[in-house]
Write a structure and sequence with these properties.
With 248 residues, the chain is α+β, with helices and mostly antiparallel strands. The protein has 2 domains: 92 residues, no CATH class; 121 residues, Trna Endonuclease, Chain: A, domain 1, CATH 3.40.1350.10. Strands 4, 7, 8, 9, 10 and 11 form a 6-stranded mixed β-sheet that branches. It has a 3-stranded antiparallel β-sheet with strand order 1-3-2. Strands 5-6 form a two-stranded antiparallel ribbon. A hairpin with a 5-residue loop joins strand 8 and strand 9. The radius of gyration is 20 Å and the shape is globular.
């Protein structure tokens, strides 16, 4: 449900008009956040940054945000993590709408990477868990608000693998590692948790974290022993086969 009379994505169009943004003008993310803070202070910073992803035609993560494929959500071209300009259909690439487009871009970016297989597995694990969060914890659900989901939820210039809510309506930051979970992931998830607590959660909402890896290392276990707000899980994958009898 929209906080104001208009949903956030339409408020972005109002912002473009109010700031007299013209073709080719560079729009800083901080200026966008400042405009919302002044005009619509109830809109959370996390909601703003997530909509910037949804409304940017070249943002690969927008596929998770229920983008209108008729062009109604094609507002910006993302120059980098902090700068945007208006989308120009005459010169900009085709907007990303589907997973196949996203995967093609990602494949190009990691073509020579030795981590290509692990990257693909992490995507598969992420999509599976997002649809089956109850396997982690009863009552855990994917965050959804105004067409924005918790899949690859933006926190500044980075992304949370999965942002969820528990049965008590508190936020849960889920970080995935398809291989071994090392202690350095603790700093990563604590940073994400702090960002959500400061920029997105209400005062009465708690924020905790979950790290899921194929193997939890002793270093990670030791590091997490100093915090009660991060839980650790190991996952196992199994495949079963069923023979299909041929009939004529």
């Amino acid at each position: 449900m929209a906080i104001y009379e208009k949903p956030v994505k339409l408020l972005f169009h109002d912002m473009v008009k109010d700031l007299s943004v013209q073709k080719g003008d560079i729009l800083e993310r901080d200026k966008i956040i400042s405009w919302f803070k002044q005009k619509y202070p109830l809109v959370k910073q996390g909601t703003i940054t997530a909509h910037l992803v949804k409304l940017s035609i070249n943002a690969t993560s927008r596929i998770h945000y229920n983008v209108d494929q008729n062009g109604k959500d094609d507002l910006f071209y993302q120059i980098d993590s902090k700068k945007y300009r208006l989308y120009d259909p005459t010169s900009d690439p085709n907007p990303i709408y589907t997973r196949s487009q996203e995967e093609e871009i990602i494949k190009t970016e990691i073509e020579n990477s030795t981590e290509e297989n692990e990257f693909a597995y992490e995507r598969d694990l992420q999509n599976f868990l997002a649809k089956n969060l109850s396997l982690i914890e009863t009552g855990l659900t994917l965050y959804i608000e105004e067409g924005i989901t918790g899949l690859e939820f933006p926190v500044g210039s980075r992304f949370i693998d999965i942002l969820a809510k528990d049965k008590n309506n508190n936020y849960v930051v889920v970080e995935l590692k398809v291989s071994r979970g090392y202690d350095r992931v603790v700093g990563q998830i604590l940073r994400y948790m702090a960002w959500i607590r400061k920029n997105h959660a209400e005062q009465n909402q708690k924020v905790r974290g979950i790290i899921i890896a194929r193997e939890i290392t002793e270093d990670l276990l030791f590091a997490c022993s100093e915090t009660q707000n991060v839980d650790l899980y190991e996952y196992n994958l199994s495949v079963s086969l069923k023979k299909i009898e041929k009939t004529i």
